């Protein structure tokens, strides 16, 4: 019964992966930290108004995730929130830049992987109701101060 619920909850999420995006992972994390946990519409406004170069690829990923959610899973875009967003380092390309007098200096080009998970919050309330009903059924009401009987040489006496 628990496995069925996990499958249902995973069906409420949309995953998007952007791989080998040509930017530094630290610069992408700076933008991802601003949009994590926000709604879809608020995220689009933030990404349009921020003046970082990392905003455009992240904007494309978020927009793609929302369009996939609305088309494939028939979610409403107003109910989507970004539940998880990660930036991981990818491969680095190393090149040599020619300099004066036959010398050269190494140049590293960083790339990163970006993963974004969007969740539909309209179905989350239904799961909360089901979970709360289960917790009520499992809860056993106990007395706050159980009475314990002790026996001594004078007789039986109660301790609270």
TrEMBL record:
One of its GO terms (cellular component) is large ribosomal subunit. The globular domain of the protein is located near the polypeptide exit tunnel on the outside of the subunit, while an extended beta-hairpin is found that lines the wall of the exit tunnel in the center of the 70S ribosome. CDD domains: Ribosomal_L22 (cd00336). GO terms for molecular function: rRNA binding; structural constituent of ribosome. SUPFAM superfamilies: Ribosomal protein L22. InterPro entries: Ribosomal_uL22, Ribosomal_uL22_bac/chlpt-type, Ribosomal_uL22_bac/org-type, Ribosomal_uL22_CS, Ribosomal_uL22_sf. Part of the 50S ribosomal subunit. Keywords: Chloroplast, Plastid, Ribonucleoprotein, Ribosomal protein, RNA-binding, rRNA-binding. This is Large ribosomal subunit protein uL22c. One of its GO terms (biological process) is translation. PROSITE patterns: RIBOSOMAL_L22. Belongs to the universal ribosomal protein uL22 family. The lineage of its organism: Eukaryota, Viridiplantae, Streptophyta, Embryophyta, Tracheophyta. It is found in: Plastid, Chloroplast. It holds the Pfam family Ribosomal_L22. Gene3D superfamilies: Ribosomal protein L22/L17 (3.90.470.10).
